[in-house]
Amino acid sequence: MRFLKLFFDALVVIGLILLVARLVSFGLHALNIPFTTIFTDYSIPSLAILLVGALGNWILNKQKRP
Fold this sequence. Notes:
membrane; transmembrane; transmembrane helix
């Protein structure tokens, strides 16, 4: 169970980092500053990583409570 908790926590952290990178990429694109498009090209997989991590944490926390 501890491994799953660490796995889902890591997914949430990675998902949040990718979310911040997408926001920075969007902001720089709006200002017409050249920046890599890798974060916008892979937005669906990064959202999936964030959702899986958040749902996994929610399910594990729900199971802990009596």
